[in-house]
Amino acid sequence: MLIVFGGLPGVGKTTLARELTRRLSATYLRIDSIEQAMIASQILSDAGPAGYFVGYAVAADNLRLGMTVVADSVNCLNVTRNAWAEVAKATDTKFVEIEVICSDSVEHRRRVESRTNDIPGHRLRSRPK
Length: 129
Fold this sequence. Notes:
This protein has 129 residues and is of the alpha/beta class.
C-alpha cells in the first residue's frame, strides 16, 4: 500500500506519518529530507521538483518489494498528487491520500512559529498567513 500524507507546513503531517510508519513497520519517505540531501550535495541549489521524482522512484522500488510506503510531503499540487497515484497504479498497489489540515489558524501559526528544525541545513517553510 502507498499512503501519502500532504498538507501545509506545521499542520502535523510529519508527526502523523512517522507514527503510522512505526505502527505499520513501513518504509518512510520524507520529501523534505530528500530535497535537503540533494541541496547538501552541492549539485543543486534548489531541488525543485527533483525531490519528488526521487521519492516516486524510491517508493516504487519499495512497493515492488511488497513494502508499505508512507510518503510525507506538502503535496499541494495536482501534478504531485497525480504522480503519487501513478506510482501506485504502475506498481499495482492500493493508494491512500491523506490531507492534513489544522482548522485552527491561531494554533497553526503557533505551530509554525515554534517548531524546530530536525533536518540539518533545511530551511523551514514560512509561517501561514
